[in-house]
Specification:
heterodimer; A: 413 residues; alpha/beta; Rossmann fold; 6-stranded parallel sheet; 12 strands; 43% helix; B: 218 residues; alpha+beta; 2 domains; two-stranded antiparallel ribbon; 2 strands
């Protein structure tokens, strides 16, 4: 198979001043001050996909912001055949704690693909940021320890399969620094490990405030009553998101409040397990007309935005979670959140300050009832949640973290 | 007003969060962590925690207290940890000693609770600071007030909260300058009395602006 590397298309220039009404002009000025000594310096971002997935979504917005700050940023996407991506998918699952059943030769294939990409890519950035495991071995192309190499791991490494991690670890150790999304994911490594939280873009289609008529139109389309409380969980249909548990919590709440439940997620057409989970959820919902199970197309930002905006309470009752950016999206929209204390969720939901945490179906139901009974408190948590996201989980904060790291490394840190 | 010898140079600081190889999944491990973690980690989870959560003006004091409450469900210990006012400390060693004393006492009186698994682990972290001079300086109180309006939250935090440790004094950069460069002792004292636990950083800016404007009108 012919291999090519590609330079993906970003969202185009994003005037930094567009963010000033959201984060304040002083914060924008501070970004410019941070970037001043980095002006003209080259940054190379490398990942394995130009579209789809959280990493591409972040880079699509982050790269133009750094370019707007006059850094010479290039984003390269490595490519490979089906065999390579089959192996990296197996890596992905294994790093999340699953088994690894591919033969040992798969590691050779993985390295050969990285080598092939290396022959096509010019790895000459002063700051090279390699995203996730797929391109991890590109560091072999580093010449005489030149430049600063950073490995950005976006996935949950809290319980990695040792076979795969022991293969990757020697490569990771060659980097100058590693970045993880949660303290739970860090590993025993001889290099400094930093925490960068995933982020949302307040100017994106998924997070911009929608006109009320757009929200109403989408509710009408799905037969949701805007006049009664709406409880919503936005997640793909995956057992780890516990949609059946959400139905259980809703049933308890329903004894006390005339509410509706919306479970909206991505298409499960190519995922046999997803189809099975969807069936289980439909069975759990039975014929309750107030449970709306929406199997949305993979890219439905306006629908998701509208459903979040219309919700009374957002639920994220995951059993395991990487970071759970749907929580940040909900908080940004000033929605009270009830969520499980797993993965990166407690970083976003500070219990009793920016939302409520739960550890069981009954606990989630209790917290939902509590918020429905105390709308003033719910509004306060939501308002504080919004500020929490503004401070920590916006794309501009992510840009600031990269600038800070580059400056720190530039100064010999 | 005449030019003064030492103008105020506004700075800002940006922080990277670096993890330490230290986690606690019980209160006993937490006590050990408080003993072993770096000074930068004590700073991060107390002084910097206040900055990261400045928009919470009720009931949030520091990461340690919040974790004990949310992950261990021990409000009596959480309350004690939350009661420390960082303004009273000019050294991290003193703060660490007090934190350790409270947690060790609790573990000693409740040995069974001390070894119970918490809902979530506490990961000790620390921050790396990158300070940057801003193109704003003040040679008078009026210029200072103009500069104050242009500061980010990070800059306000750097001068008003983190400075206490840098100066090793029970004061902040602003008050220090008011008193030592402008001779405005009363303004310095009133500025230092602004409650950083019950005000957001934006609230601090507002009150400070009011105090300065009152001084300018006097």
């Amino acid at each position: 198979m012919t291999m090519t590397t590609t330079t993906p298309t970003t969202s185009g220039p994003i005037p930094l001043d567009d963010y000033a009404p959201i984060i304040g002009k002083p914060e924008v000025d501070e970004l410019r001050a941070l970037a001043a000594s980095l002006r003209g310096h080259s940054v190379q971002m490398v990942n394995s996909t130009a579209v789809g997935g959280g990493v591409a979504e972040i880079l699509t917005r982050l790269v133009p912001i750094l370019q707007e700050l006059d850094l010479a940023v290039r984003w390269d996407v490595m490519t490979g055949g089906n065999e390579f991506f089959g192996i990296t998918k197996a890596f992905h699952n294994a790093l999340h704690g699953g088994p690894y059943q591919l033969p040992p030769e798969s590691f050779e294939t993985f390295l050969a693909n990285n080598q092939q990409n290396l022959s096509r890519l010019s790895m000459d950035g002063e700051f090279t940021v390699i995203h996730d495991p797929q391109p991890v071995a590109l560091i072999k192309g580093r010449s005489n320890h030149s430049g600063h190499w950073i490995w950005r791991c976006h996935i949950d490494l809290s319980h990695p399969n040792p076979t795969v991690w022991e293969f990757l670890e020697p490569w990771v150790k060659k980097y100058d620094a590693a970045i993880f999304s949660s303290p739970e994911f860090v590993q025993k490594l001889p290099i400094p490990q930093y925490l960068f939280f995933p982020c949302i873009d307040p100017l994106s289609e998924k997070n911009q405030e929608l006109p009320p008529e757009t929200v109403r139109g989408i509710l009408d389309r799905y037969g949701i009553d805007a006049k009664r409380p709406i409880l919503t969980q936005i997640s793909r249909f995956d057992r780890l998101k516990d949609p059946v548990g959400v139905v259980g919590a809703y049933r308890i709440v329903k004894r006390y409040f005339d509410c509706q439940l919306v479970l909206a997620g991505g298409s499960a057409a190519d995922d046999p397990e997803g189809e099975a989970v969807l069936t289980e959820v439909r069975e759990a919902a039975a014929d309750d007309p107030d449970v709306h199970i929406l199997n949305l197309p993979p890219w439905s930002p306006t629908e998701i935005n509208a459903l979040q905006q219309a919700s009374t309470i957002i639920i994220q009752k995951s059993l395991r979670e990487g970071f759970g950016l749907t929580v940040a999206e909900a908080l940004w929209k000033k929605k009270p959140v009830v969520a499980s204390a797993v993965g990166g969720i407690p970083l976003q939901v500070i219990h009793k300050h920016t939302g409520l945490l739960a550890h069981s179906v009954q606990g989630a139901a209790y917290q939902i009832r509590f918020l429905l009974s105390n709308p003033a408190l719910a509004a306060k948590l939501a308002e504080q949640g919004h500020e929490h996201v503004r401070e920590h989980f916006l794309i501009t904060t992510n840009a600031k973290r990269y600038l800070t790291l580059f400056r720190y490394l530039q100064a010999g840190g | 007003m005449q030019g003064i010898e030492c103008p105020f140079q506004f700075l800002t600081a940006s922080y990277l969060v670096r993890t330490q190889d230290l986690k606690a999944t019980t209160l006993a491990e937490f006590a050990t962590g408080l003993e072993k973690c770096s000074d930068a980690s004590i700073f991060f989870h107390t002084f910097q925690s206040l900055s990261r959560h400045h928009f919470l003006t009720e009931g949030f004091s520091n990461d340690f207290a919040q974790w004990v409450l949310a992950a261990s469900n021990r409000p009596e210990l959480a309350e004690q940890l939350a009661s420390f006012d960082i303004r009273e400390y000019t050294s991290l060693a003193e703060l660490r000693a007090d934190l350790r004393r409270v947690v060790n006492d609790f573990c000693e009186f409740h040995p069974q609770i001390a070894t119970q698994q918490t809902f979530e682990a506490f990961a000790f972290c620390e921050a790396v600071e990158v300070a940057i001079p801003l193109a704003i300086a003040a040679g008078s109180l009026r210029e200072f007030n103009e500069g104050l309006q242009k500061l980010s939250h990070a800059s306000l935090y750097f001068h008003f909260i983190a400075s206490r440790l840098r100066l090793h004094l029970s004061t902040n950069d602003f008050s220090h300058w008011f008193e030592n460069s402008l001779g405005l002792t009363s303004l310095a004292r009133r500025a230092d009395h602004i409650d950083i636990y019950t005000n957001t950083l934006e609230g601090v800016r507002t009150i400070l602006t009011q105090l300065i404007e009152k001084e300018l009108c006097a």
